[in-house]
Amino acid sequence: MKIRVMIVDDEPYILQGLTMLIDWQGEGCEIVKTASNGQEAYEFLLDNQVDLILADIRMPIMTGLELLEKIRNEKISNAYFAILSGYNDFSYAQQAIRYACMEYILKPVSKDNLLNLVHEAIRRKNLTEQQKEKTRKLQRIYLVKNVVSLLHGKAEPESVEYLKNNLPLSSGVRYVQIIAESTEEIGEMTDDELRQLRNEMYESCCRFLRDDSIYCIKDIFDGDDSAICLLYCRQMAEMRKESEISFFEKLHREIENSLKIPITLVIGKEVEDIVKISHSYSSACVLKSFKGFRKQKNIYYYEEEVQVNQNKVVLCKQSLDNLIQAVEQNDRGAINSSVDGLYAEMEKMGLTADTVSMNTNYLLFQLIHLAVEQDESLNQEEVMLYISEHVAESGFSRGSRAHLRKFACEYAEYLIQLRKNVSRGILLVIEKEVKEHYAENLTLKELSRKYYVNSSYLGQIFRKKYGQSFKDYLTVYRINEAAQMLVRTDKKINLVAEEVGYRDTDYFISKFIEQKGCTPAKYRKNSGDIEKISGA
């Protein structure tokens, strides 16, 4: 970053000489103004910012000392100030120091003195910028911490007051979650790759929001690096002179076009102000879990998807209870007949969107409860994620009879697997899979399907236990196995690579260097040398 410099002197030849004495551009500076007296410099500073001012001590109209005193007293500029003087008078220097003058240089100014002055100004500016950045980060951390507390309805009164002052959202407030949709590519990303993806989402969102970028938060989700959030208020759309729908459509388009991957916006219900944002947050969480049973969209609005029952829609409770019991017992015949019975009852009432929505929501809530009953330590979020993921992948028309039948059968299998996982622990099973099949094309997605665990949740708990993604864990395991082969056998490197799961030898070598700090050949040689020394 270049520093902006202003030079003030009433002698034209001195003014010109100072501009040519050093290579200002090469030293990282830009001379933005030259002035012939303090008054001219003062008027420039009223509308412009500079980082360094070099001013002669004696000038007509306003001296350098008067300029320094005036801009400090009026708090017009905090620029680093250097007095240039032909007078070696200590009283002048005292006055200059009183108003935070950085340097008092005697004329004629030497090249070395000027360079030292510039370098010191750059050094101080860099330190100041670093301190400002550190302060900004700490403030951001504190702000996010208070937002998280407020979202969960646990904010203390002082936290609420802090957020009202620092996030002044007007009426029509919504919690919006911006999600990178789960794809095989995303599922296999390393932690660093996921964090990079989230950063790109965040930067794209901030570019769109411009002055409102403070309301976009990227580090709010524990263990989920593929989502960010936006605290929205109606004024954001109004300031752009567009509708709320248009605002969110443009936001979605901006992020998706930037990342080139599918993006979904889940928009919680509207609340009065930020104090009640927890209600909008909880509604968005429900909507995110149930969106698999809705028509697939880029943007989900709570008010549209979870409609208030104004038409007195009747809950088909007996049919739903029959279906839930059939799922619990994993009775395929009973599942099929119960689904048929449910749809027959809904058709009698008129198969409206409200009817399907209300009965589906009741069913999903009961199925979540059923899963949690299998294991009290089970995270309810895991079940909701499982439902969202597996409903979305069914391949059937959402809300159809065939869709529900297939999902109910899969969920029955999921409950059986949960009962098994209670006693043995899913992560122990995954460890065993890696140990026995590390050379195969293992992916988190395939393992999650095999053991009926949501892949996003499995990725989260894996990171929490091992401090790394599954992909990184598998890489480390493979490279360690390769290292043992290199020491214990004389197999060629390409064969070792193949036996631990790498078909591309060059890629294997690059991964080996990342883990061990040297090539496989050097690792083998070093290990041999150590054995010789030990044997000796």
Q: How is this structure best described in words?
A:
The chain is α/β, with parallel strands linked by helices and 536 residues long. The protein folds into four domains: 125 residues, Rossmann fold (3-Layer(aba) Sandwich), CATH 3.40.50.2300; 139 residues, 2-Layer Sandwich (Alpha-Beta Plaits), CATH 3.30.70.270; 105 residues; 106 residues, Homeodomain-like (Arc Repressor Mutant, subunit A, Orthogonal Bundle). The protein has 24 helices and ten strands. The strands form two sheets. It has a five-stranded parallel beta sheet with strand order 2-1-3-4-5, sandwiched between helices. The protein has a five-stranded mixed beta sheet with strand order 7-8-6-9-10, sandwiched between helices. Helix 2 runs parallel beside helix 3 and helix 15 crosses helix 16. The chain is flat and about 105 Å long. The chain starts with a strand and ends with a helix. 31% of the residues are buried.
